[in-house]
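Aim 2, interim progress. The first record below pairs a target sequence with its structure tokens.
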Amino acid sequence: MRAAHTDIWPIMTDDIYNVQTVADGPSGSIPVTADMLRNAPSGDIFGLGQDAAMGKHFGGKVQNEFLIVSTQGGMRGPNGENIASGLHIGHWELGLVSQAAANQFKKRDASPFYVAVSDPCDGRTQGTPGMMDSLAYRNAAATTMGHLMRSLPKRKGVMGVATCDKGVPATLMALAGEHELPTIFVPGGVSLPTKPAPHLGKLHEHGVTAGNAQSIGTQYAQGVITLEQAGEIGCKACGTPGGGCQFLGTAATSQVVGEALGLSLPHSALTPSGQPIWLDMGERSADALVEMDKKGIKTKDILTDDAIHNAMVVHAAFGGSTNLLLHIPAIAHAAGLRRPTRADWEDINRKTPRLVDVLPNNPAFSTVHAFMAGGVPEVMLHLRDNYPGLLKLNAMTVTGKTLGENLNEWEKSERREKLRALLQERDHIDPNDVICPPAIAKKKGLTSTMTFPDGNLAPEGSVIKSTAIDKSMVHDGIYRHRGRARVFANEDDAMAAIKATHPDRIPPIKAGDVLILMGYGPMGMGMPETYQVTKALKESAFCKDVALLTDGRFSGVSTGQCIGHIGPEALAGGPVGKIKNGDIIDITIDCGKLSGRIDFIGADPDHLVSPNKGAEILARRPTNPDVKPHPDLPADVRRWGIEQSVCGGSWGGCVVDAPTIAELLTLGAAEKTRLEMAQAAGNKRAIG
């Protein structure tokens, strides 16, 4: 207890001075053998002593060790009370499912270990310098997780537990690197939306979600909501204290992809966090990992080219986040597989129908409704039955069975029947309206999600969620827009132009404009999300008449006429960085054929040029002088941005490939030596 403060050392009561300097230590002994003492590494024996000090009881034998790696953050009390907040609810409850798994390992006579590498919240860092760390964090976290995995040398298998935008991809990358061991991924689930809140405006008539809550600044600035409504909306952003956001953004899509890869148990993605069905999934995942070890099933048996293909197909069928264009190639790279190309993405998206109709496309249904309607296996069932050959059904999964065998069991399972019936009976939602059979999807007008425009502004390609384009702007399946460029190399200025907060200094965006946000690729800004910009546009009265082009990326919940991932990025000399205010930009997106172009066609609307001529003009222009690495870009993020640019860039997953870096360093060292020798020879001749 503390008494009155007098100086830097407060006067304390006597009990704090009762300092113990020696202890008895744990009773009993560690289960060593003569052979271990003679031949085992000292670390094996020392580790047993560490286990004893942490209260482990051995029962006279050494058990198989399994490692749980989660992205848990924050400190919860015994009853769930907040002791210290995490950065987001996505990692707040992960200790619960990890504990359920650990207890199950013990029931299987195995020894669980637990470590955590927490993760950031892309929502919390929107519009702040913290967003520059977001994508680079994914790589750093995967590397750190790999270090920790290898720091338990006798591990028999690894379980990854994660929920959100960067934590899930990082965990999947780390698991993919464990080629010779069994691994399993446990999704951290989803939060629930709040109940319908029509008193907060039309936008929230189906309930408040984290996606809508992120735009309350723009809603208030434009007079859509009051100050009091803004406060209530912000408070109700998450209906429950755990899980990922309620829409099919990057967090939810990454969980879906983890299951589609075969690394998670069937029907585990999008489970509502904190509920018994979620904890049960953790227990069954522990059982599955033990069985994989017994059967000799390794990660390399599951993560194959077929698994990557299945993940891309399911991603297309869900209409998932464009950020998986970065994450699936990175997972493939970690697994030692061929990274999918832009052509692969185009091919699969043209072949695969979109069958899932939830947020952000349909505000009436959230991710938990997709789970209740059958989740990933239900979508796969429709693909199997209606598009033969699209899925690789012989792909192995963590169940020890093939995907085809899993789907056979799902089709006749009690779980499928009961959950779909419960959705209908309790929530009055037809499961077939959430996960649509192909005929219903066609009747509802669902189309494939992603289009990959090229053109003279995107020689390496770009991406747009063509399903997110305002339908009133699409005629005969084609979106066309021609307008003057409004160029920004600063997100704050772009927001000011949208909100019209400084009209004297920054002219407001107006209908017909093409907003260009340049210098937001990995080298310039760490490739941050630009969700606050896209959401602000979405909530603007003129949103459907404005297009956005950027070499940055978007949140999975972004909607509207937004084209991102433009390559090459501006800082690498990409033509998007050479556009000037007033230039005429021409955009055409064929939403049916999933093709499109973004072109500069001149600076004078009365003297337009062809795309080829436009490319020639841009080639002669210098990059906008405002395009430069952000002054607040952390040094390690800048280094990563440079490294990934020579390892495939954003279309290669923004990874750092060690052999490529080593080769370039060797070439650079050789060139440096050659130049030094040439200079020395020149100096010698000059002296002679």
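The second target in this work package is listed in the same format:
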Amino acid sequence: MKKVYLLFLSIIIVTSPVKAQGVNRNKFISDSLDQYINRALTNWRIPAAAVCIVKDGKVVMMKGYGVKELGLNNKVDINTLFMIGSNTKAFTATALAMLQADNKLSLDDKVTKYLPDFKLDNQYAGQEAMVRDLLCHRLGFKTFEGDFTFYNTNLSRSDIIERLGHLKAAYPFRTKWGYTNSAFLTAGQIIPKVTGKEWEVYLKENIFAPLGMINTLALSVDLPKSLNRTVPHSLVNGQLTAIPYPMVDGLAPAASISSSVNDMSKWVLALLNDGKVGTRQVIPNAAIQATRQPQDIVGRVTHLNGESNYELYGLGWFLQDYDNHQLVMHDGGVSGYLSSVTLAPKDHLGIIILTNTDQNEFFEALRWDIMDVYFKRPFSDYSGKYLKIFKERQTADQQRDRKIRDTVALNRLPQLPPAEYIGKYVNDLYGSMTITQGTNNDLEIRFEHHPKMYAHLQPLGGNRFYVTFSDPIFGKAIFPFTVENGKVTGVRVKVADFVEQDPYDFKKVP
């Protein structure tokens, strides 16, 4: 679902020409890439990856690595399915651009033309928002705003669009870029209004089937039914563990597609060939070009070679320059999966990397290694550099968590008896959650719109509790309760930044 913001990119690293031991740059792809990837899977603790490189209209390499599930010997092949998260967005944006090319709509049409009930808290923005505004993250929201409510939830697509209207925009309309998954959902819901077909049906009939993407699934609910599929993994208390499949069909046009590296190669080959498969025009070239037109400035990015450029956003794609090469790219992240798709259109180069753990940055690092081969740059071992920073950050997180656990072990009593914290709490956007008493002085939270998830609360003393979510993607946090005149009146809820960066204030129902 997410564009993954890496700590690595906030650090200026100037790479100097490095002579890799035994690495011949002219033969790196054919002779050394397998070894490099296999070593990285071990170092990063990635159960499975699938990688494809296309160049000049041909597949240069395509291979599955590792196993579908940790501890089992089910090997990955080129047709094994992975969730691709926010790489779904390019499909949604392309579908709408195809409808524009067919004169079925205009990307400059107002959203209310197709969704009359569409509203935003900023009334002017709700009235004036165009389809393209939804596809380039410029409604005025903060990045990931609302996603605790919308991600892996039991809310329907229409429920989420309605609640989007209750989000308080942090910025004026069209003044600042902020990654908004619910806006992409809203854009996808325009497709049925124009075509009479649901988003997932339109994609299957107009993109997947014509391109020969026969194994690709539009909805997350269908992935567990597939025979040739990976299992998602994450780190739980430092241990790599299989986790439940994310159910993100409420945000489907933003995040729900599952695909294989073989199917994704057909998508990338078509995008690099002006939408053609052979002589057959599947995707209008005008639609492809529409998605690559810069719409907004994301910010500055410092590349690994030290050069600094602006990063822009098109429609479902990030746009960058790297060593004087134009890049069209996106990352994808949902629970247990991370992926990247990178196009260098003028170089006729495409790179696809799929992984089945959400605790790695190899999916990001590998593409730079591969690009450097084709752009005739020296070897820099980006995987090793990313891994060093990843481990340093992980160690710092573990030390911080250990200190909190040490405090928990002191068995400090909460300020009030546990029964005072028990009850129903409400938030205007999210809805309700219920706190019940667990063992000893521990508490437990159940969430209205995440019925399969709970949170375990352990007292830290005073009115602070250490919280562990049963779904590891939501992380660990400290929840402070508000007490007035000896009564609990509310609690501040915080989930992992991967889901949403701002906290939610819940009020206790008397």
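The two ends are 37 Å apart (CA to CA). This observation will shape the mutagenesis plan for the next reporting period.
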